[in-house]
Amino acid sequence: MAGWNRLASAAFACLVGAALTVSYADAATVPVTLTQVGNPTWQLLDFHLFSAPAATDEQLAAVTAAVLPLHYPPVPHTSFATEFELGIAGAGFETRTTFSPQEIAGDPLGVYLTFTRIPGAGAPTAISNDFPAGGPILPNSLYPLTEDGDLFLNGVLVDPGFDTVRQGNPTGPGWTHSFTLAAMTETFFPAGTTPVGSYVYRERERDAFGNGYDFEVPFTVALAVPEPHVSTLLLIGLVGVAAMRCSRRARANR
Question: What is the pTM of this model?
Answer without folding.
Answer: 0.83
